[in-house]
Design goal:
The protein has about 500 residues and is mostly helical. The chain is built from 21 helices and no strands. Helix 5 packs antiparallel against helix 6 and helix 17 packs across helix 21. The chain is globular, with a radius of gyration of 25 Å. It is found in: Membrane. GO terms for molecular function: 1-acylglycerol-3-phosphate O-acyltransferase activity; 1-acylglycerophosphocholine O-acyltransferase activity. Its main location: membrane. InterPro entries: LPLAT_7/PORCN-like (IPR049941), MBOAT_fam (IPR004299).
Length: about 500
């Protein structure tokens, strides 16, 4: 337990520790924006973030956890600097940081009370692990020539070795330390030095448009808090495990679980939007001029969720690209694109084909890393395995079904709007179905709940994958033709 006992506040407000803990952390971040803005030097800002984030961590969790996080961060820093020329170094840093995070996940899973808050010290450590991994890759990319790097990697590479204080300021940056989002070192370094995109115009004292976007983001976060607070006692996954749930029809069960999923989403929406608000308030959320609207500015640098894109997504990729955005970007840059790299100017055709062939493996490996990063509850792995097959199923549908509606010459082209509506409904059902494992955590609980809706989405996925295999085999046989088949037989004879 931390230096601050949340028990009295829980009793007084009726809110759970899972809401109060991050709520107090975010509230403190809002108040720290003013003194942070008064600091003139980058070193002072680095030290301020380390000190304030350390105090917040000790208040909510414990001193031992803070020492552990400082030790891990420092170890990853020295390994990254000392072995920056080695291509294996970033992989080692990722494994080391994930191993320490994994031990903390196991401690929370097996040695803490089942009723203890889910919001514990693993949450800020998860954010820190992302930063350690991206720092390691960026410092390694800084040793390569530009011809060996993609456009994104060139913009993120670290050519000059930063000091340990700069690095820790990046890891412990106070508005995003507890709940994220993560970001790259170069972005943070530009911010504390008021350089790059954060450079103020002549005579300006602050970046333009801050208060409008801050107010909007804060309002959305508070609305999501209210929805979750009032609806979560009524719509809960646990009810799906009761005998009363069996009295519902199949359609009613699906509708109830879908509504419960939407309520649970609001918990994440509120946390991410309030954290984004803290980043906007201190100025870090600024993302330059809006190219689409003259005279407008973007404050979406720390946007971690795009709510409307999630609710209106027509396929799993659209959903995932708008959910936990910065984590998705981290997984893409630190895992997926390292296994299936983007095309490079001097890349051979064979290397390009190999990267394309690795796409499927990279997708499944990325989901596995994501599951490991989240923890070791069996339900997490059930969710991410299901998600990986949903993405694969989306590829199959785009290959066989999409052309039937998108081709102007097709007879079904006039039903294109129906195709989009069906895609939206299937995505909404499939994605929320998959999250049952994440929410229930326990293997038995997830299987029982899925079983009560007859594993319907899993069955549909299996049917789709089998059909793809059958159609693919028939297509290859048809393409080969009887003449070619007999020719091959003759050659063998």
């Amino acid at each position: 337990m931390g230096l601050v006992d949340l028990g009295p506040l829980v009793s007084l407000t009726g809110l759970s520790a899972d809401i109060l803990g991050p709520g107090l952390a975010l509230l403190s971040s809002y108040f720290l924006a003013l003194p942070f803005a008064m600091l003139s030097s980058a070193a002072a800002k680095d030290a301020f973030s380390v000190a304030m984030s350390g105090l917040i961590f000790m208040a909510l969790f414990n001193v031992h956890g803070l020492v552990q996080l400082l030790a891990l961060s420092s170890a990853c820093y020295f390994v990254s600097i000392r072995f920056r020329n080695s291509s294996r170094m970033p992989v080692f840093v990722l494994i080391l940081s994930m191993a320490v995070l994994g031990m903390n996940h196991l401690n929370a899973q097996f040695f803490q009370d089942e009723l203890s808050p889910r919001f514990d010290q693993t949450v800020p450590m998860m954010v820190a692990v992302q930063k350690m991994a991206t720092f390691a890759w960026s410092i390694h990319d800084g040793t390569k020539s530009d011809t060996k790097l993609s456009k994104t990697q060139k913009s993120l590479k670290i050519s000059t070795v930063p000091s340990i204080l700069q690095y820790l300021g990046f890891i412990f940056f106070y508005p995003s330390f507890i709940l994220g989002p993560s970001f790259h070192f170069n972005t943070y370094n530009d911010f504390v030095n008021t350089s790059g995109q954060f450079r103020l115009a002549a005579g300006a004292t602050m970046l333009p448009g801050r208060w409008l976007y801050f107010s909007k983001t804060l309002a959305i976060g508070l609305v999501c808090v209210a929805i979750h607070t009032f609806a979560s006692p009524i719509l809960t996954y646990d009810f799906g495990l009761t005998d009363a749930f069996l009295g519902y029809s199949f359609i009613e069960r699906c509708a109830y679980l879908l509504a419960s999923a939407l309520v649970q989403q609001c918990q994440f929406f509120s946390a991410w939007k309030l954290a984004e608000g803290a980043c906007i308030l201190c100025g870090f959320g600024y993302n330059g001029a809006d190219e689409k609207n003259a005279g407008a500015f973007k404050w979406d640098r720390c946007e971690n969720v795009r709510i409307w894109e999630i609710e209106l997504a027509e396929n799993p990729r659209m959903f995932l690209s708008a959910w936990n955005v910065q984590t998705a970007l981290w997984l893409r840059s630190a895992v997926y694109l390292r296994l299936a790299p983007e095309p490079l100017p001097d890349q051979t055709l064979e290397e390009a084909r190999e990267a394309k062939a690795n796409a499927s493996f990279a997708t499944h490996a990325t989901f596995l890393v994501s599951a490991f990063w989240h923890g070791f509850y069996p339900g997490f792995y059930l969710t991410f395995i299901t998600l990986s097959f949903l993405v694969s199923a989306n590829r199959i549908s785009r290959k066989w079904i999409r052309p039937l509606f998108h081709d102007p010459a097709s007879k079904l082209h006039s039903f294109l709007s129906v195709y989009h509506v069906v895609g939206w409904a299937a995505t909404c059902i499939g994605m929320n179905y998959a999250t049952v494992g994440m929410q229930m955590k326990r293997f038995n609980s997830a299987m029982i709940l899925w079983g009560r809706i007859y594993f319907s989405v899993h069955v549909a996925l299996v049917v789709l994958i089998v059909l793809d295999a059958v159609l693919g085999t028939l297509g290859r046989s048809k393409k080969a033709g009887p003449g070619k088949a007999s020719e091959k037989t003759t050659k063998v004879d």
